[in-house]
Hints:
The chain is of the alpha/beta class. It is 23% helix and 27% strand. The protein is built from six helices and 13 strands. β9 and β10 form a beta hairpin. It is globular and about 45 Å long.
Amino acid sequence: MKAFLLAAGLGTRLRPLTDTVPKCLVPVHGRPLLDLWLDALDRAGVAEVLVNTHHLACRVREHVHARVGPPVVRLVHEEELRGSAGTLRANRDFVAGEDMFLALNADNLTDFDLGVLVAAHRAGGRLATVALFRAPRPSACGIAEVDAAGTIVGFVEKPEHPAGDLANAGMYAFSGEVFDLLDGPEPLDIGRHLLPRLVGRAGSVTVGDAYFLDVGTPEALERARTQWTGAAR
Length: 233
């Protein structure tokens, strides 16, 4: 199995830290987010990971080249940011022949077992399976409406009046047919452009009581460093 680890973001909300440290290498208790994700992907049975780079790409390249152990990492540099869905489309050959693949936002911190997402996708037989979490501020997130069978029946990015609090956690399992829906100019985003097209065709899992936090602000990063235990589930 293969995965995309989407790591090319600028991390502007974390400045000045991210002026010198790429967001995916921001450490929590001495371990970069990138390494935490690669370890989680290894535990889930992922053998090869494509990591996209942009800001401070040389730092990411140096870190990956010094890393020992699975999974295999392939770096793809983006001179211009393609957007999360644009990265998938531009590198569709990476997962050619795979029955499914994962795509993950590298700027989140979680101990959610990715094997749950993989198993749900294989059991559900859908075009996509999306991990969801309970958002404390739903209007700041992409909010999904889910029916009793777990099918996503509505999705709105950062709604002014959210229909609920089940939010996109930036962890996806996709079948190859999803590439047929990736059209339009770049930057092309999974949340804004792809997920609305998957309404009625995507299943969902919730992260449950797993730890989950977007560490995109200094306040969130400090909270993560206070709360995070690093326990694998």
